[in-house]
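Q: Is it fine to ask for two folds in a single conversation?
A: Yes, each is treated on its own. Send the first.
Q: Here.
A: Result:
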Amino acid sequence: MKYIRNLFLLGVVSMLAPYLISCEDDDNGIVIPVISVSNVSPLDNAESIGYNPTFTWEASADNFENLKFDFYIGTEENKLGLRAQDIKDTQYKITKNTVMKGGVTYYWKVVAKDGFYDNESEVWSFTTAAPDVPVIESPLDKSLLFVSEGDVLLDWTDSAGPNGETAIYDVFIDTVNPPVNLATSFSGESEFNATSELTPDQRYYWRVVSRDGLGNSFSTETFSFDYLAAKEPVKPELSEEVEDGVLSLDESLVWGVALGANTLDVYIDTVNPPLNKVASDVTGEGYVVQTKDTPSDINDIKTFYAQVVAKNDDGESKSEVISFTPQVTGVYTDVRGSESLDYSWVRIGSQIWMSQNLRTKKLTTGEDLEKIIQPTSADYPITASTTTLYYDEHPADNGPIPGYPSFTAPWSDGDNGRVYSSKVPRNALIAPEGWHVITDTDISTIRAYVPNASDLLDEWYGGTDSYGANFLIAGYRYNNFTDDRPFGFRYVVEEGRVALWINPIAGTNDVWELYPAGNYRSYNQGNEHNRMFGIRLVKD
C-alpha cells in the first residue's frame, strides 16, 4: 500500500483535529489515518468478461463516511486513464457501450480518498469476451443465382451479445458497395428470404449487423451475388477510353460488371466482327490494350474492332463491337529527381519506340551519372575495373566542326542525345518504368516489319524517315584522341551510320548499327571499356 500526504502550512494544522489521533508518547505526534482499498471483481486475470461489467471493491478507513473513489482503466498497465471520480459507492459500471471492445485485455484500479489523504488498490486485469461475430454461410461471395431456382435465402451463423443477450439482425442489401439499404431488422432465426428485395439481372451486395440490447454491434463481411433471369451471362456493355476515336497508349477496353460471367475473352482485329483473341479468361472489368494487339504505324493507321465475350458453365454472351484507331505518336515525360525531359515516341508495327536518343544525366533514382573528363589522350578514366557510370557530350555542342556542316547544336540536348559507357545500358536504373534499352528481340521485331535499314534512316543526319523512328547517332566515342577523332569522337564514322547500345546479355558487348545503304549489323565491341555509344528505349 502506498500513502500520500498532502503538504499544508503549519498555520492550518489545527483544522485537521477531527482527523487526527494523538500518540501516547511524549512527542504528541500525529498519526496518519488508515485508508485501505482492494479490488473485488472482476477477478484478476479473469477471461470472457462482458463489455459492461460492474467493478466492485472493498474499502475501510477511520473516517469511512468521508471516503470517495476515483476509477481508472486502460489497455496498458502503466497508462491508466481516469474514467470516473468522486464515486460514493464501492462499485462502478461502464454504461457507454462503445468504451470496451471484445477480446481485449484491460487493467483497472481504484483510488480511495478522504479529502486529505488517499490510497490506491493494486492494478488488476481482465480480458473481455471475444466478439460473437456473425458469419455468412450462404450464398457465398460472388455466387450466381437464377430466378428459375426459386427463393433467395440469406443465411448466417447465430450471434449473441457478450452476456448472452438476444441478437437483433439488421440485413443490408444494395446494388452499391458497401450496401446501405436496410432491408429488414428482426430477432430470431439467422435467415432471411430476400427474393422480394431483388430485381433480375443485377449484382447485389449484402451484409448482416448483429446488435444486442447493450448497444454492441458486429458485422459480417460484405458478400455479393448476381441475380440473373437466364443462366447464361448478361451481355457485357463494352466501352473504350477514347477521344475522337483514338485509343491512347496504355488505355483500356472497359466493360464494368459482367453479370453472371465467370471469365471473359477479349477479341481485337482489323475485321468486323473481330476474330483474333488477344486475351483469354479475363476476370476483371477491363483490359489494357497491348501494343502487339494493334500493329500500326504513321503510314498505315488501321481501324481496329473489339469485342468481349462473357462466359460461364451454361453459356456465353457477346458485347457489341466497337471500333477505334490506336495512338501512333506521343510524348513521354521522364522525371529523375530535379531533371525532367520529354521524349517523343512512335508506334512502329507492334512496338513503341522512342524517336529520340537518351539524353539524361541521371539514373531513375535521381542519382547523377558522371561526365567523362579527359584533358589528354592518355587520361581516359575508364579501365577494366571501373564501376563508375559515365556519359559524354559531342563536340558539336561547342560550335561548328570544320568539314562536317551537318553537325549542329543542340546535339546532346537534342534528338541525338548523349553517349554512355558500356555499364550504363546494363544498369536496371537507366530506363524508366515501362521502358527498356533495346534488345536483340526488339531488333528482330522491327527488322521483320521494316526489312531495309534505309527506310528507317533516310539521310542519317536529318533523322527523318517515313516511320518517324528518327534514328540518329549520339556519337562514336573512342578511348583516345587521333587526327581523325579529336576529343575521341570519330566524325567520319558518325557521318555514315547509326550506332546504339544493345541491352546486353552475359558475355556480350554489342552495338546495333544501321546503315543508309540499307543493312543492319550487330557488332561486338570486344573491349567494353574502350567505346561509348548512344541509347534508345523501347516500351515494355
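Q: Second one now.
A: Result:
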Amino acid sequence: MHDMFEAVNVVLRQHPEVGAYNQTI
C-alpha cells in the first residue's frame, strides 16, 4: 500500500495540475 502511495506522489510531482483533481475524489 505504501508503494502505491509513493507511485502516486511521483505522478503528482510530475503533473501538479492533477493534484487539484485528485483532491476532489
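Q: Anything structural to flag on that second result?
A: Two points. Residues 1 and 11 are 16 Å apart (CA to CA). Residues 1-25 form one domain.
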